[in-house]
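#struct-help
A.M.: can someone run this one for me? Single chain, 567 residues.
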Amino acid sequence: MPGGGGGGGLGKVKAGSRPPWVGLAAAVWVQVAAGSAYVFPLYSHAIKEALGYNQKSLTMLGVANDVGENVGLVPGVLANRLPPWLILLIGSACAFFGFGTVWLAVTKTVAMPYWVLWIALCIGTNSSAWLGTAALVTNMRNFPLSRGTVAGLIKGYVAVSAAVYTEAFNGMLNNSPTNLLLLLALGIPIACVLVMYFVRPCTPSLDEDNSTEHSHFVFTQISSVVLGAYLMVATILGDTLKLSATITYLLFGIMILLLLSPLAIPIKMTLYPSKPKDEKPSTIVPSYSTDSLSGADQESAEPLLRGTSNTFGTGTNDSDEATDVDLLLAEGEGAVNLKRRKGPRRGDDFTFGEALVKADFWLLFIVYFCGVGTGVTALNNLAQIGIAVGANDTTVLLCLFGFCNFVGRILGGSVSEYFVRSRMLPRPFWMMCTQIIMVVTFLLFATGLHSLIYVSTTLLGICYGVQFAVMIPTVSELFGLKDFGLMYNFMLMVNPIGAFFFSALLAGYIYDKEAARQNPGVLDPSNCFGPDCFRLTFYVCAIVLLWNLDLRVFRREDQASLSDAIC
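D.P.: on it. Structure tokens below:
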């Protein structure tokens, strides 16, 4: 049976048990490079000083940074039409031309108008969407039975990418914003070109009881957590102590070794190959869509996660299942001619257009929007929140949030994967749990107490990461992997939308109004102190989450939708 025939232009499927792990290790470096949008604060001040922009102009450049990072509909559409290496190559070109143009402007090599710089920054950070789509979609398809774990790992490394860039910025680049921009313009393309051959479609493992694969994932998760903890400690040490050049290079070298740790798995598989097991024949082929199933195979093949996707249903009772079995037996004996329902069912491969008309899709979008949209408000204003409550060093807050966000993504993927397999507990349950915790977290933020700021930041970071890690496999299990890249990137649009409504319009307005009240007579006050700067914002965010939790989530009687799965 031909593999990879669907999704024209995707190339040959690589056979063997080792290539998927090589691809996962390569995707780690791709995802670290894809974190370029997180380092805007490291060079934004240089843009402001070199080009003489005011704070409002710089804020609009921040909008370009967010738009470029999160609007990835184009790479989502092309994920089924182009091979992963070409997606990575396009992303590399975006980074080269985008950040290269910003570098030319900051170094004053070429004078350019503001709108050109805005577009250039948008193109540069859009490389994150291209790189992330290629790495995530390819690995989700290479490990179809471990989607939650893979999503948590892949997106977890994006969360620590800011710390990786910060470590390089403080140590190797001598705190030079222009050197950082040059690294983004040249380093991202070089890294992608070096690993893009290995990010490729492979024959997936379809053995649900593969203990070896499970141990490999555990090792990768442990090594990633060690990397995250190490980067947090190294960042704090570098920020509080004056380290010598030797220590700085040593810390940087350890970081590189930890980033290479996922390669230990394919190396171990090469040196100590396991004996092949007799696998049961499967009707599932390592394809990118159902197009590669032909003839009778297409009719007999089941959805990739039939057992898992059923958990998103509305709890079909035993009598209904018995009736379905009787009908199928009768059809097989020729007693009845059972017509198949038109259109895909939950868990099948949906096209993007078919998913858009489903209530599940929009309910998941709203749930994710409320959770991440309110969370990104606190993230975007975390430095100002810390200053308002009297935190002297906001770098520690940002580092703490980044590490907890990383831990949340790892835990969200692995824990939801475990309970889906062992208890048939649907993943959206964890979104509900984290949003309940976020309500409490926002109320803690609203107190404005300095003693609670670190606890609140820790809880917010973990919950924010879990939301992201759970959304990705939920989309794939509800609507399949055929147009997963496009659906995933569509969901990511909640980040800039949420930032616009909750951060720019709500938090920004309230902050400026309180700053003006505290500084009467000052034309454009820039700082606000005290709990009132963000208290109303956090109350609104908590109310939005409570409304979201009551959004017919616990009501089964209206329709069979994702809301039943969350109960």
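A.M.: thanks! Residues 1-9, 279-324, 327-331, 552-567 have pLDDT under 50 and may be disordered.
D.P.: also worth noting: Residues 3 and 426 are 30 Å apart (CA to CA).
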